[in-house]
From TrEMBL, chains A, B:
Natural source organism: Neogobius melanostomus (round goby)
Taxonomic path: Eukaryota, Metazoa, Chordata, Craniata, Vertebrata
Protein name as annotated: Aminopeptidase NAALADL1
Residue ranges of domain PA in the record: 153-244
GO molecular function: aminopeptidase activity; carboxypeptidase activity; metal ion binding; metallopeptidase activity
InterPro entries assigned to the protein according to its UniProt record, in alphabetical order: PA_dom_sf, PA_domain, Peptidase_M28, Peptidase_M28B, TFR-like_dimer_dom, TFR-like_dimer_dom_sf
Length: 706, 706
């Protein structure tokens, strides 16, 4: 009995202890919530370190050699070779992505006629030697894509940049009817030089790059230019797309048919080198052109008689353009690749770069493509080895037919409009990765400056082991921020110069464009950085940004930095416009209110972020991330710019007013001042209302959700 | 020692058992993840039962008596009283909401002049007695809001519905210059009757409701109409807003100024009762009008000489309109109230109803307002008592100035465009809650039919204890679905008849409109349901839908039901258009492909939902819910209907073609057939492309996210 008692007591004790143990095990130890999977996965700095050390300059050099073996103009055989090369790399079993494929679009392009080359002649026989810059038969001769074919003959005149004001000024002293105008690149869009000329009766246009605008303002000869320096050689010709829309011209906004093509040059136009341009311009007769029309040629730039001086060998000669360009519909491909996100696969970070070039494209775009391929190699291998998978999905895009007007990227954004609008966190564009080896250059929405700074601080500047890309950058380009003190200056993506345009202007996606560059803006350069260390620095910096955007638990965007730019814009607008607007009874008070609402809302969101337990509230983190992701979408207004194709972002749309302020307001104000018409002042008021509504609307998305 | 051994052994055993216990407690029992808060909160059927039983018909009757004490036309003193009443109820400490406030907008309205009443006279002295229907001095006399003031005099003609084709037909036999046209409601928008008339030289327009179109096609006298039946009495006049936009007319899309007001009647127009109309029309001279122009008056409807028969007392008389309406900017208020969501506060279910009436508004809108107040009373009390808090946030909107053109709701959607687009799960509109007591009527996107069915099955039909609202409904209006068999027929929200319009057409938010009604469509009825049981049934049904939308872990939307409607649309379009389109070399294949892509994508999403462990993957549930919530947003295209104000939803936009198919395609096709012009056939092609892109784009949002 005693035994039984003891046993019972023992069992009792055991049961008690077991129960206590179970209770401890269940409640005490598992008090920290147990979250399945990686719901709170955040950036891993060790992974960043590993990524940075894996990025290899030699690999980038190999990529570039492969990509530039043959010219790869859009839809040519060379382009198809690059498609295959990208697919092979992204489908590689050891270093490829989760998935990669091509997407084809039927698009309208313009080519020179190979059997009937375009000709520019002076008088009977002097042929302008515009084809001489490269001898490879696969190299497309310089031409103006989308220039109409045609034969134009007339006396030459010099029309500066070919802006409306230039032709107006020139027409005051020279009868432009039946003339050929020679214009320099810059100041107006390429197609605009012909579009602006046509109303004055000009029958053809030549375009060249003045050394003044590209080679540090110096007239340059063969000994001073490439390959002896960064400078554009005298026979170098900038090719380009001469249209004013972007995306496929036959299918604006969608895959339609039977729509007239707007914005193309109405008269023949042809680019030439500055050596030829100098011979022509220095022989021109007529009155001297104004000071700000003068370039770097060692002569006085005259308007043209029209035509040449009697003392010149050309004297009575006409200039004749024989243009045989033709338009045709061709299949252009994007190559797409993805790494699936582990936690939020429905959030996308997109990294893109176009693939097509005009010629070999060692700079534009293949410096960018070779960098992208190195980033995908390093990340792809980590994924294949099971060492890493990003929190969000990463989409890589190798866009086709960018040179003809951002066609591949624009068609992509049109086709997947809803999906991309709803889910894209950010777009990173690296087109020309390396112009030169002096400094980083970055443009984008102000909200992303901080993640670029963080990334650039972790990368060594090329050739400067102990200096970071950030520390080097701040020396070349900086500004003073009320919040942050002196910081590198981030540019604005106001134009449509590369594939970021459809993402920024049409979709309203937070975007950036990153490159290594000269300490001034350089157009065409044909130099590799020494040992590809600049390429490596870009791969590291852009890759670091990409990983942070894909992996951060909380998106690394600052709405307060956006507010700072809106305040700068407002200050400029008030200084420039307020006095004049008051005389028209148009108040800027509601715009001031809107900017101040935005600042308050941004500060509020900063506080919410500070006070949120990020590691314990998955839906709250997602809520805040949605606010951050969708901020730029709130600035879209499809009715803001009825005359501007696919520009909807009221803060970043292009503006011809050239002021660092709200673009629609600046343009409307300039027009109203110039015309003085009431209807134009009403449009200024309309743009103020558009801005108020967009900025107040954006502020509403950042305040308390309910 | 033995003792110590035993003790050690005992301790050892205890430690072992404890460890086992801890291990069991930690691993075995807590294997189900422990989620803090209510991340997986779902609909609670017990709560629904409690809600249904709490909804009280007597409370609704009290609400209605309070709301209809005085006429409450927008911005009048009576309207302000209803604002205060709503605020008092929603701010009540025991039955109110979390928060309630008013939002004021400065809007452009049109009123009759009280000192100088509008007059319609025949000849020298016979005054048309259009003001006699109500004698209260606070009751606004019948007038056409936004009719210009003016004096118009001329011979009378009868112009049927005042459609373009009606005036064209009439003009073939009668010279319309200088005439006054009498038209019946229906067939064309109110303002359109004057807009269509003006090009023919008509100088003024009268409008009346023909008994044919409202009282079951019977001519009705005082003994047969209200209060003896549902029928509109002979002196009853339908008031209305005579404009073609919706939202504030001075600020289309935003708060702008200096914009011309489009779409208003260019000539004076005035509504009258059918008793007066009958006197006028039966005296008309001229040729007999066609059969389909005849109404229910006991006479032959003639075109008019123009003017009256010689045998009539009016013979040579002119009809004269003296209209003194004036436009003015007034402050109109929305009253807003919210219940904050506990788990996903950044997801909104919006429930709305306008507050303003033309007169007492016992039906339109106060039957709906009294129902809304009962829903908020029951839910508000549950919240105040801590018994319930919805998963998502609920926003209640009591819109102002709906009768003048959906002004309050439209301004709200403009002001909060980005925020509402990003976060709104659904909009429920209950305007006139009870037209009559026969059957439920519901219109909306096909994706929400199932949640309405589920809710209607749980509510007893008024006066029929053992029959559900659903079982009663299916008897009155049903259709055969390939998937579901015979089900009640859900209507489509293609027009702009109530405040759902800005949510459907401008924001692309999944919406519905719910009421109890007659077994035919009735325009103006002044009857309460017996004991307010129909009101109660609507409060229960709409409230049930509201709770399900706010509380369901997974949104109760079916994309496959949407696919079924697209397939119906496609079938109709192919039958109607394909043969003719082939002759124009326009193919419908890509549209067929798009609809089939959508069906596949919808089925795919159904499978993903089936295979998802909803109770264990918070971010995956949110991902699927985002796909469901944003589906309708993918159908928006701001460029689809450049001529239709704020219509962007390519599936539900209004169409004058009257076919149950894609509206833009139907209208473009009708126009092209009628004009035969190539440019119009190109627009047909354009609309096909718009549809392809929207439907394929929507399908992309439903397939695998990456």
């Amino acid at each position: 009995q005693e035994m039984i008692k003891k046993l019972l007591l023992g069992f009792g004790c055991c049961a008690c202890v077991l129960t206590i143990g179970i209770l401890i095990g269940h409640f005490a130890i598992s008090k920290t919530p147990f979250w399945p999977s990686d719901v709170f996965k955040d950036v891993d700095e060790n992974f960043i370190t590993a990524f940075l050390s894996e990025v290899d300059n030699i690999q980038i050099e190999h990529n570039l050699r492969e990509l530039t073996k043959v010219p790869h103009m859009a839809t040519t055989e060379g382009d198809e070779q690059t498609v295959q090369f990208m697919l092979k790399r992204w489908q590689d079993r050891e270093t490829g992505l989760d998935d990669a494929w091509r997407e084809e679009y039927s698009v309208y392009l313009s080519f020179p006629n190979t059997t009937n080359p375009n000709k520019v002649t002076v008088g009977q026989d002097k042929e302008v030697n515009y084809t001489a810059d490269q001898l490879d038969p696969n190299v497309v001769p310089p031409y103006a894509a989308y220039s109409p074919a045609g034969h134009a003959k007339g006396k030459l005149v010099y029309a500066n940049y070919g802006r409306p004001s230039d032709y107006m000024h020139l027409n005051e002293t020279v009868d432009l009817r039946g003339t050929i105008a020679i214009t320099r690149y810059g100041g107006a869009g390429r197609a605009a030089k012909a579009i602006n000329a046509e109303p004055y009766g000009v029958v053809g246009v030549l375009v060249y790059t003045d050394p003044y605008d590209i080679n540090d303002g110096l007239m340059s000869d063969l000994n001073e230019t490439y390959p002896h320096s960064w400078y554009l050689p005298p026979s170098g010709v900038e090719r380009g797309s001469f249209n004013t829309l972007y995306g496929d011209l036959l299918t604006p906004y969608l895959a339609a048919k039977g729509i007239d093509i707007p914005g193309l040059p109405p008269i023949p136009i042809q680019p030439i080198g500055f050596e030829d341009a100098s011979t022509l311009i220095c022989a021109l007769d007529g009155l001297p052109a104004p000071n700000d029309w003068q370039g770097s040629f060692k002569c006085k730039y005259n308007f043209g008689g029209p035509g040449f001086k009697n003392t010149s060998t050309f004297k009575d000669s006409d200039v004749k353009l024989d243009i045989y360009n033709y338009g045709t519909v061709k299949n252009s491909s994007n190559v797409m690749g993805v790494i699936r996100g582990s936690v939020e696969p429905d959030r996308y970070v997109i990294y893109g770069n176009h693939r097509d070039s005009w010629v070999h494209g060692a700079i534009d775009p293949s410096s960018g493509t070779s960098v992208m391929l190195e980033i995908t190699r390093v990340l792809g291998r980590m994924v294949k080895q099971g060492k890493w998978r990003p929190r969000r999905s990463i989409i890589f895009g190798s866009w086709g037919a960018e040179e003809f007007g951002l066609i591949g990227s624009a068609e992509y954004t049109e086709q997947y409009f809803a999906k991309l609008s709803e889910r894209t966190v950010a777009y990173i564009n690296v087109d020309i990765a390396v112009f030169a080896n002096a400094t980083l250059r970055a443009s984008g929405m102000p909200s992303i400056q901080n993640v670029i700074f963080t990334s650039a601080k972790q990368v060594s500047a090329p050739g400067l082991k102990s200096t970071s890309v950030y520390d080097n950058w701040i020396k070349y380009s900086n500004k003073s921020s009320p919040t942050h003190g002196v910081i590198p200056r981030i540019g604005y993506l106001t134009g449509a110069g590369s594939d970021y345009a459809p993402f920024v202007h049409y979709l309203g996606i937070t975007s950036m464009d990153i490159s290594y560059t000269y300490d001034r803006i350089i157009y065409t350069m044909f130099i590799f950085s020494v040992g590809f260390t600049s390429h490596q620095a870009i791969a590291r910096t852009a890759g670091n940004v990409l990983i942070r955007l894909a992996d951060s638990l909380l998106l690394p965007f600052s709405c307060s930095d956006y507010a700072e730019t809106l305040e700068d814009y407002l200050k400029e607008a008030v200084e420039q416009y307020e006095v004049e607007l008051k005389t028209k009874n148009i108040s800027m008070e509601s715009l001031k209110h809107a900017v101040s609402s935005f600042r308050l809302a941004a500060s509020h969101l900063d506080e919410v972020i500070q006070s949120t337990d990020l590691k314990n509230e998955p839906l709250k983190v997602r809520m805040i991330n949605d606010q951050l992701m969708l901020l730029d979408r709130a600035f879209l207004d499809p009715l803001a710019f009825p005359d501007k194709y696919a520009f909807r972002h009221v803060i970043w749309a292009s503006s011809s007013a050239g002021k660092p302020t709200f673009p629609g307001l600046a343009d409307a104000f300039a027009k109203a001042v110039s015309s003085g018409q009431t209807s134009d002042w009403n449009k200024v008021h309309y743009h103020l209302s558009v801005l108020n509504q967009a900025i107040e609307g954006a502020a509403h998305t950042l305040t308390n959700v309910i």
